């Protein structure tokens, strides 16, 4: 006899609805992208084929899909590296309180609560007034950092708050310099968290729309290009593009997770070898 409380079934139903609303639109787009040449933007499907995926690799009359993809990829890598480096430096700096640290922390976090479109407008105006070109690699890069850096810093704060300083003391007792301690002790220990920060930085940049809208200049990133296509594309080719970009995001996430798992396994193996040696 099932003795589970009624609340269990209520929560299970709510969780099921949550999954439907979360993944239902993505699955719908994926299904519709496999329609035949006569397919439309709605059900019922008209045949099944890879026609619209092949269309993506042919000459497009509706936009610069692959150019915008390359720009988003390069921009995402730029944001990822910068977020990673600055977050680690900030995490190390905030391990000790210094004058103005509280105010600096609040200023960094404030960008998360300011509407993204206002950030985009402000950065675009700042570059224009300064006589600098509004470009995705300049103003767009800066605007996206206001989104990714706070997340990276928050992760690093949490990592260093529970970091055991005894490892650093042991390294210094063995004669290691501060740089050697950072390189050979601190960074290997926090490496999985660094992968998480890098993943955050890349994925947040790759699909960012609002903060890039007024700062990308004349060349669109992929989210802006897709948004432009929604106004003039009436075929499932846009669904095929959405499916490919979703698969690309999943592949990137998978690579990061595999890298983290491999690093954790290597660290555990080294710790085991060191234990045997002792």
Short description:
With 278 residues, the chain is mostly helical.
Produce the secondary structure layout.
Layout: H1 6-32, H2 51-56, H3 65-93, H4 101-110, H5 116-129, H6 139-161, H7 166-173, H8 178-206, H9 210-213, H10 222-229, H11 237-277
Helix pairs in contact: 1-11, 3-6, 3-8, 3-10, 5-6, 6-8, 7-8, 8-11
Structure report:
This protein is mostly helical and 278 residues long. The protein has a domain at 64-232: MetI-like (MetI-like fold), CATH 1.10.3720. The protein is built from eleven helices and no strands. The termini are far apart. The mean pLDDT is 87.
How would you name the CATH homologous superfamily of the domain at 64-232?
MetI-like
List low-confidence stretches. Answer: none
Taken from the alpha-carbon principal axes, the silhouette is globular
CATH architectural group of the domain at 64-232: Orthogonal Bundle
Q: What distance separates the N and C termini?
A: 55 Å
- The CATH topology annotation of the domain at 64-232 reads as MetI-like fold
Q: What's the total number of strands?
A: 0
Largest sheet: none
Strand-pairing-aware structural class: mainly alpha
Helical segment count: 11
Strand residue content: under 5%
- Name of the CATH first level of the domain at 64-232: Mainly Alpha
């Amino acid at each position: 006899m099932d003795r589970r409380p009624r609340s269990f079934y209520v929560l299970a139903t709510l969780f099921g609805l949550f999954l439907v609303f979360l993944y239902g639109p993505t699955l719908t787009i994926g299904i519709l992208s496999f329609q035949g040449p006569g397919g439309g933007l709605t059900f019922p499907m008209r045949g099944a084929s890879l026609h619209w995926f092949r269309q993506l690799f042919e000459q497009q009359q509706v936009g610069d899909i692959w150019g915008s993809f390359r720009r988003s990829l390069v921009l995402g890598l730029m944001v990822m590296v910068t977020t990673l480096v600055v977050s680690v430096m900030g995490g190390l700096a905030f391990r000790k309180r210094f004058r103005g640290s509280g105010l600096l922390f609040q200023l960094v976090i404030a960008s998360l609560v300011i509407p993204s479109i206002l950030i985009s407008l402000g950065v675009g105006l700042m570059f224009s007034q300064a006589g600098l070109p509004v470009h995705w690699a300049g103003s767009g890069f800066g605007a996206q950092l206001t989104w990714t850096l706070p997340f990276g810093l928050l992760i690093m704060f949490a990592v260093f708050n529970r970091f055991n300083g005894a490892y650093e003391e042991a390294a210094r007792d063995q004669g290691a310099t501060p740089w050697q301690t950072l390189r050979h002790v601190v960074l290997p220990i926090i490496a999985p968290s660094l992968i998480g920060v890098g993943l955050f930085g890349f994925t947040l940049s790759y699909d960012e729309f609002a903060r890039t809208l007024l700062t990308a200049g004349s060349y669109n990133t992929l989210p802006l290009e897709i948004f432009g296509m929604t106004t003039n594309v009436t075929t499932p080719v846009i669904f095929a593009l959405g499916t490919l970009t979703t698969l690309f995001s999943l592949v990137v996430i998978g690579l990061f997770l595999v890298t983290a798992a491999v690093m954790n396994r290597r660290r555990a193996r080294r710790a085991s070898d060191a234990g045997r040696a002792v």
